[in-house]
């Protein structure tokens, strides 16, 4: 367990020797060696020991506090920061140049390729079972190709390049979510994609899982010393970690969407039992599954590496792009 999420309301998180200890009603319900942790995510209404804070800071373990949506809104870490002034200056110079359009094109292209990969991944499974939904998914994946090609036609000198790029991305998303809905890969309660405050269980699960993914991206960017709130695609807004939102686009489909699709029976069970939209058990299942994907092995430059380590390498490649040493290439997943 490298990344721990604690969601039990009223619990206490403290320190016992070199162990993180979670208690409920003065009873130990969980223990984890600090040496195995990188991040601890804490939801609301959880008490915390200052001794644990100091121990985590000494070991470089980040404590991330989540709001009601599961989005990280505060982070505690040690005073040592790997911030490099040259990289941040180069980041701002890059964002204000024409190069930002090329980088945004690459990220959105990669996101769309990974959405196609998810459709084709499940298409292959359904075709093996002889189900007609398999061919429908493949046809929908093929429909995306012309829109993918349209991204390359955007001129970096256009003043409205961002609007055009996001417009194409939005059209692809419509095809993508319709395909998942029409082939019944998601629960029947899912009709369309909803963001913040969604009351439908599939959308609520997706939003919660995206928040966990965002914490991974946030941590990788912070490790590299980049400015989280200065993005090249999403518009800057106070409190909006634009760079984290930019980079996580290419991981959304494979890491989160694919995971939630596989949890269809769990989500349907939650609906059937009329339980709280996302109770602590379902949240734990989601966080455990996302953590499993991030700690799983993927092929990267001819070697098998943990996905979370690949993400960190991709962030360092982004740093090299900002300083003009390399051209950023997105991570596409093999289906």
From TrEMBL:
Any GO molecular function: hydrolase activity
Positions annotated to bind Mn(2+): 169, 234, 249
Superkingdom field: Bacteria
Xref: Gene3D superfamilies: CRISPR-associated endonuclease Cas1, C-terminal domain (1.20.120.920), CRISPR-associated endonuclease Cas1, N-terminal domain (3.100.10.20)
Key words, A-Z: Antiviral defense, DNA-binding, Endonuclease, Hydrolase, Magnesium, Manganese, Metal-binding, Nuclease
GO biological processes: defense response to virus; maintenance of CRISPR repeat elements
Pfam families hit by this protein: Cas_Cas1 (PF01867)
Enzyme Commission code(s) on record: 3.1.-.-
Cofactor: Mg(2+); Mn(2+)
Complexes and interactors: Homodimer, forms a heterotetramer with a Cas2 homodimer.
Purpose of the protein: CRISPR (clustered regularly interspaced short palindromic repeat), is an adaptive immune system that provides protection against mobile genetic elements (viruses, transposable elements and conjugative plasmids). CRISPR clusters contain spacers, sequences complementary to antecedent mobile elements, and target invading nucleic acids. CRISPR clusters are transcribed and processed into CRISPR RNA (crRNA). Acts as a dsDNA endonuclease. Involved in the integration of spacer DNA into the CRISPR cassette.
HAMAP family: Cas1
Family under the similarity heading: Belongs to the CRISPR-associated endonuclease Cas1 family.
NCBIfam families: cas1
Protein's name in the database: CRISPR-associated endonuclease Cas1
Protein source organism: Turicimonas muris
Gene field: cas1
